[in-house]
């Protein structure tokens, strides 16, 4: 027993308690929703070229046929499968988000638990319990690095990808819960993963595809750290709060390490998860929501003379600047980060739940009517929206119509968040659309059913192994 007691040991003891006693059914059902959403996004991600890139690398790492890779008949070792699937979960920016930490926990932890549960022959409840705790730990690490005064992540201020960094430790906790279950092994795994955690966000500024793999790397770290802990490797008990620990290294003096364990088990930050209804940058979503409402009111593109899009000031740098690039994006990927384009496309009428991947192809962004409408959108900072940021990504849209009439919509909470959650039918619709890119209707329905049945499933493997062989290729 260590003479010094650290925060990570409190986390590990909570994890051991959950392994022993289990979580309430409603927590498991929420975790199953996260699996359903993330698996759908991974299936969609498996249609992207990044899949071939990461497969080319991971196929050199080992050959133990332990685990399923989405849409891939060849099986891989658990850490490799977690890496590939984790990459697929985030590569299209369609995965869930926690606010205000702006973390994407499921893209790290879901691939981890799918791989380790399959390798260890875990049942569904144990998989979901590990997912719930790993997700919560990831978020709590992010919240400990959140500066309330500046209303921003310290990680992001320093150019770090908080999701990848915090996700590695959350994934390690989840993996250790499945591989061993005791507090000592879980604490060691988390402590080991802290030395592996990494990720920079410079690619958001100047390009490159590396950010797409960082959730996969977090999952890989989590699985590997748990395997090392099971083998006997240990880490410092003060890995989080110590003088040379995680928070000092990544966040400096502004961090609040005590938030990692405050009301642990009583208060769940993961209740504030946001599921994305649209496959584009989250800052654009409330503008899309407003456009859908305007369309519902009968507003049509032909009568629009001008549109004002008001958003929090920090959002402008991502979705409104530089102006010329945002009103006329040249690629589908660029369009996903454009406030004017996404608003215009949703007002004209998009696919899916309002917009879908067909609206973000390189061909779709050249549509004359969409570009003409986007050119009428002017973006500005809105003080009321700024006051709600980053707990929400709100928007206020004012449209001036021919004849002098105006319409205004204020969307102050995000669709898909805790204030306006997606219904089961909407979540199923998103999953079905994503699954249809690789699987026929019968197989997609079977996958969805198996995932929801994880709440009581005596064996998680049948749900996971359905994902190995796609029935369609597009």
Brief sketch in words of this structure:
With 474 residues, the protein is an alpha+beta fold. Helix content is 50%, strand content 9%.
Structural commentary:
- With 474 residues, the chain is an alpha+beta fold.
- It folds into 2 domains: 7-276 and 446-465, 2-methylcitrate dehydratase PrpD, CATH 1.10.4100.10; 282-411, 2-methylcitrate dehydratase PrpD (60s Ribosomal Protein L30, Chain: A), CATH 3.30.1330.
- The chain has helices spanning 7-21, 25-45, 50-58, 78-90, 105-120, 124-144, 154-157, 162-179, 183-196, 203-206, 214-231, 246-250, 285-296, 313-319, 323-327, 332-335, 339-348, 368-374, 383-388, 424-435, 441-452, 461-465, and strands at 67-69, 72-76, 97-98, 146-147, 152-153, 273-274, 304-311, 377-381, 395-401, 406-411.
- Strands 8-7-9-10 form a 4-stranded mixed sheet. The chain has a two-stranded antiparallel sheet with strand order 1-2.
- A hairpin with a 4-residue loop joins β4 and β5 (152-153).
- The longest helix has 21 residues, at 25-45.
- The mean pLDDT is 95.
């Amino acid at each position: 027993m260590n003479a010094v007691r650290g925060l990570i040991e409190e986390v590990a003891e909570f994890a051991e308690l959950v392994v022993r006693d289990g979580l309430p059914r409603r927590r498991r059902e929420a975790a199953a929703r996260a699996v359903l959403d993330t698996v759908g996004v991974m299936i969609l991600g498996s249609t992207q070229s990044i899949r071939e890139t990461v497969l080319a690398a991971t196929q050199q790492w080992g050959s133990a046929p332990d685990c399923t890779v989405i849409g891939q008949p060849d099986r891989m070792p658990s850490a490799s499968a977690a890496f590939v699937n984790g990459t697929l979960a985030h590569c299209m920016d369609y995965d869930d988000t926690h606010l205000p930490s702006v973390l994407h926990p499921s893209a790290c932890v879901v691939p981890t638990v799918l791989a380790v549960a399959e390798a260890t022959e875990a049942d569904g409840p144990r998989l979901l319990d590990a997912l719930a705790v790993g997700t919560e730990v990831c978020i709590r690490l992010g919240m400990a690095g959140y500066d309330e005064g500046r209303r921003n992540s310290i990680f992001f201020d320093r150019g770090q990808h908080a999701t990848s960094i915090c996700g590695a430790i959350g994934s390690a906790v989840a993996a250790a819960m499945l591989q061993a279950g005791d507090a000592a092994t879980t604490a060691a795994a988390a402590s080991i993963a802290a030395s592996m955690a990494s990720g920079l966000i410079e690619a958001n500024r100047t390009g490159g595809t590396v950010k797409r793999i960082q959730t996969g790397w977090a999952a890989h770290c989590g699985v590997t750290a748990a395997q090392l802990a099971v083998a006997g490797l240990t880490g410092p008990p003060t890995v989080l709060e110590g003088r040379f620990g995680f928070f000092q290294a990544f966040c400096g003096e502004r961090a609040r390490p005590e938030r990692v364990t405050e009301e642990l088990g009583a208060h769940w930050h993961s209740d504030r998860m946001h599921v994305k209804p649209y496959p584009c940058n989250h800052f654009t979503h409330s503008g899309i929501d407003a456009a859908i409402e305007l369309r519902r009111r009968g507003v049509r593109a032909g009568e629009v003379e001008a549109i004002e899009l008001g958003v929090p000031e920090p959002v402008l740098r991502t979705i409104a600047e530089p102006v010329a690039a945002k009103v006329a994006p040249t690629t589908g990927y660029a369009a996903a980060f454009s406030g004017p384009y996404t608003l215009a496309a949703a007002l004209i009428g998009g696919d899916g739940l309002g917009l879908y991947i067909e609206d973000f192809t390189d061909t779709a962004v050249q549509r004359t009517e969409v570009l003409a409408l986007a050119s009428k959108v002017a973006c500005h900072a809105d003080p009321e929206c700024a006051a709600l940021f980053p707990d929400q990504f709100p928007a206020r849209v004012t449209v001036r119509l021919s004849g002098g009439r105006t319409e205004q919509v204020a969307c102050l909470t995000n669709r898909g968040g805790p204030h306006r959650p997606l219904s089961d039918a909407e979540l199923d619709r998103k999953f079905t659309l994503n699954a249809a890119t690789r699987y026929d209707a019968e197989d997609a329905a079977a996958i969805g059913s198996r995932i929801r049945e994880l709440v009581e499933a005596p064996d998680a493997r049948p749900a996971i192994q359905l994902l190995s062989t796609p029935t369609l290729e597009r």
